[in-house]
Amino acid sequence: MSSFGVGRVSSLFVYPMSFDEFLTATGQEGLLRTKRNSSPTNPLPEAFYNRLVEAFRSYMLVGGMLEAVATYTETGSYRYSSDIVSEIIQGYQDDFAKYGAKANPLLLRQTLISVAHQAGAKFVYSRVEGQYRSAEVKVALEMLKDAGLIIPTYHTDANGVPLGAEINERVVKYLIHDTGVLLGILGIDDDIDDSIKEMMVADSINLVDKGHVAEMMAGLELIKYSSPQKRHQLYYWQNMNKGTCAEVDYVIARSGSIVPIEVKSGVKGSMSSMYSLMRNPQKHIEMGIRCSLENFGTFESPDGKKIDIIPLYAISNLFAEK
Question: Given 44, 109, 130, 293, which is the most exposed site by the fewest CB atoms within 10 A?
Answer without folding.
Answer: 130
